[in-house]
Amino acid sequence: MNQYDKTFSSNTGQLGANHGQQSPRQVAVKVITNILLQQGSLSTQLARHQLDVASEHTPMLKELCFGVCRQFPRLNSIALHLLAHPFEEKDTDLYAVLLLGLYQLTYMNTPDHAAVNETVEACRILKKDWATKLMNAVLRRYQREADDIVEILEAQPSVEFNMPKWLVKRFNKHWPEHLEAIIDASNTHPPMCIRINESLVSRETYKTQLADLGIDSEEGEFSESALYLRNAVRVGELPGFDAGYVSVQDEAAQLSAHILSPKNGEKVLDACAAPGGKTGHLLEKANASGLSSMELTAVELESWRMEKIESNLARLGYSANVICADASDLKAWWDGEYFDKILLDVPCTATGVIRRNPDIKINRKPADIDELVIIQREIIKQVWTTLKQGGFLLYATCSLMPEENEQQIQHFLANQSDAKEVALNSLAPSLVTEWGIPVSHGRQLFPTANGHDGFYYCLLQKA
């Protein structure tokens, strides 16, 4: 627990009336503070602190946290313009309070006076009464001059595109023809896409079941198991969710299992498995009816994510050999038995899924690309040795950066004489592969406003 968590914990009684549970605004301050201090991603922070609020306040907590992260480039530019001097690191919590106040004034229906008063009160709860007058003055000024301030700042890429300047430059460098579409899609709320467990129910039947409940859906264009919901619903409202009939998963991510098309009797590896969505889909694909005889090993580095993989598999009614280890450290997990097929969805910058992980706008830096390329290079080099001759490895990322994708494969092929690239529908001839665009190796998908996320795929075979 860091100093900010301790501060909030010691003031729990002031934050909410529900037997120690805190208000969504105050938990949001805690979450955003930790993100600004690079002490964890938005998803990990929410997982850690979501129970600090009453369940009925969870949607508000997520709205505040996701909203500030999604609008951070603009809010940050505005905040720095309004402040005569930036807050010191020890007052990062006050900066989080200010960002939340600006978000409420700009993007929410909160009455202006309420947004200002709540922001000022948050300073008192943090026991930083000295900041109340400053916060009040800054927000009152923004109320009066919002249009003029935005007009002054709108030439900045961070304000114009609501994206970090370096990221806009990278997108424009690599994908100038797709820049506007990438930016627009990355700044929108993602649609809710579900994956039908085709071993239990057909997509057509499930679509009818949804319609009977008044839930409108549309079939995915590329994944035969994908349905897009016109309006998002809670998973508990999806028929058969607890019984494994359906999972929430983006259409682009669903393509991995369709491309590998695992069969009963095969030995398959999911090398970077968390949170287990693709792991479950691989088992579903192999399971035409009844229990699958496919042997699946799932390796994941982060111990805290293991529970998510196992709970996903339990809900689907499947089992796998789940191992907590570094995929590139073969001695830690590999038993020497070769795999028929490998899914290698490597750690990446996640620049294709910014709309689902908007804290990328805050914490991702250009240097991360070079660091991740080194990690990816080592993983694919080591994992390749576990693939049997004639076997297939599907390399995947949710990145839009060529360094992590086609250039990474180019380097691998140049240094691995027994590797060759094959068509993405080599294992599933009926698979539609006219998605995204072809690049020098594999295919690159861009995020689409009402469709799939950004993803990259390349299928390799061991000669």
Structure description:
The chain is α/β, with parallel strands linked by helices. The protein folds into 3 domains: 3-156, N-utilizing Substance Protein B Homolog, Chain A; 191-248, Alpha-Beta Plaits (2-Layer Sandwich), CATH 3.30.70; 255-462, Vaccinia Virus protein VP39 (Rossmann fold, 3-Layer(aba) Sandwich), CATH 3.40.50. It contains 19 helices and 13 strands. Strands 5, 6, 7, 8, 9, 10, 11, 12 and 13 form a 9-stranded mixed beta sheet that branches. Strand 11 and strand 12 form a beta hairpin. Helix 3 (24-36) packs antiparallel against helix 4, helix 3 packs parallel to helix 5 (58-70) and helix 3 crosses helix 7 (92-107). It starts with a helix and ends with a strand.
Short key terms for the protein model shown above:
disordered N terminus, globular, Rossmann fold, Alpha-Beta Plaits, alpha/beta, 13 strands, 3 domains, N-utilizing Substance Protein B Homolog, Chain A, 19 helices
